[in-house]
Amino acid sequence: KAGLFGAEPWTEQMRAEIEERLGIKAYDIYGLSEISGPGVAYDCECQNGMHINEDHFIIEIIDPDTGEVLPDGEQGEVVFTCITKQALPLIRYRTHDISSITREKCGCGRTFVRMQKPCGRSDDMLIIRGVNVFPSQIESVLLSCGNVDPHYMIYVDRKNNLDVMEIQVEVSADNFSDQVKGMEEMAAKINAGMQSTLGLSSKITFVEPGTIPRSEGKAKRVIDKRKLH
C-alpha cells in the first residue's frame, strides 16, 4: 500500500510516523494550482528527492532577496517556468517555497532533476534573535525526541526588547504524565535538539492530546505576537 501526500511541508520524521501508523509507503507529490495542480514533481521508490516533470516545467532556485539564480545544492526559493501549458503559461513564477535541486544520478534510474522536500515558505520563515527558523525544523526536532504527537504550536513574542519563543506540544496519550521529573527531562531533550539544530532555546509546554486546534486545510503552526505590538 502507498499514499501520496502534499499541500504542506513535512519532515522525514513525519513520513516515518505516517508509514508506521498506517502501514504504508508515504510518497511526496508537489504541485501548484497556479500551474497544473499535483504532479509537478513526485517521489520515486528511492524517496530521495522529488523528480521534476521536466517535459513540462523548468525549475530554478533563486535567492529570495536578490533574485540571483543559485547553484545546484544551495537552498533558495523555487521558481518554475511552464513550457507546454497553452493557456496562461507562467514564466519564472516565484512559488515562495524554499528548497534545493540536484542533478546527481538517482538510484531509480530516472534522469529528471530532483527537488528536495521544501522546508517551508519564504513568507513563513521566522527570524528569532537573528536566526532564520522554519516550523518544519522545529517539527523535526520534536518528532526526533519521541513520546510526542505531531501536533504543536509555536508562539513568538518580544519581551524586554528580546525575542522569546514558546512551543506547545502534545504528549502521546500513553506517555502523558503528571510526573514533573519526566516532563522536565523531555523538555531538556527537546531544547538540546533545538540548540544543536538552530542555536536557540525555547520554553517547552506539554499539553494533553487533543489540546492543539486542528484545521481542515494547511495546519497553522505559528502565532507571532510581535506583529501585534
Mean pLDDT: 86
Strand order of the largest sheet: 1-2-3-4-9-8
Annotation, overall tally of beta strands: 16
Helix/strand/pairing category: alpha+beta
Task: Describe, in plain words, how this protein is organized in 3D.
Strand 2 and strand 3 form a beta hairpin. This protein is α+β, with helices and mostly antiparallel strands and 229 residues long. It is globular, with a radius of gyration of 19 Å. It has helices spanning 12-22, 135-145, 180-198, and strands at 2-5, 25-32, 37-43, 50-52, 57-62, 76-82, 93-99, 101-102, 114-115, 120-121, 126-128, 131-133, 148-159, 162-171, 203-207, 222-224. It contains 3 helices and 16 strands. The protein has 2 domains: 2-121, ANL, N-terminal domain (Rossmann fold), CATH 3.40.50; 126-228, GMP Synthetase, Chain A, domain 3, CATH 3.30.300.30. Helix 2 (135-145) packs across helix 3. The strands form 4 sheets. A 6-stranded mixed beta sheet has the order 1-2-3-4-9-8. Strands 5-6-7-10 form a 4-stranded antiparallel beta sheet, with no helix packed on it. The mean pLDDT is 86.
In short:
With 229 residues, the chain is an alpha+beta fold. Helix content is 18%, strand content 37%.
Could you outline the blueprint of secondary structure elements for this entry?
Layout: E1 2-5, H1 12-22, E2 25-32, E3 37-43, E4 50-52, E5 57-62, E6 76-82, E7 93-99, E8 101-102, E9 114-115, E10 120-121, E11 126-128, E12 131-133, H2 135-145, E13 148-159, E14 162-171, H3 180-198, E15 203-207, E16 222-224
Parallel strand pairs: 1-2, 13-16, 14-15
Antiparallel strand pairs: 2-3, 3-4, 4-9, 5-6, 6-7, 7-10, 8-9, 11-12, 13-14
Helix pairs in contact: 2-3
